[in-house]
User: Fold this.
Amino acid sequence: MNTEETLPIDPPCASTKCAVEATLSIIGGKWKGVILYRLLYGKKRFNELRRDMPKITHRMLTLQLRELESDGLVKRTVYAEVPPKVEYELTELGSTIKPIITELYNWGKTYL
Assistant:
């Protein structure tokens, strides 16, 4: 692969605003990519996400969802009913990450 043809002309991460660093600061970590992957195909309730990711703790899932919501990638909807119903889904901005998450999945499948 010739990197001059595929990478931007800017020296990678030479400036104070590195696009790769910005992306990884938002989706980096052990769980955010997995959460985004689980939300690619529609809304999920909190316990559905917990079942899909049995190794994540309740607290960590809550924190990661809050961060993704704060960064504008995930939307949290609370329904006024008893017991309360809460759903998570990708925002319009969050949906733009689908090709990246899909490629991470494909790369991981090949690696495994």
About this structure: The mean pLDDT is 88. The radius of gyration is 16 Å. The longest strand covers residues 74-79.
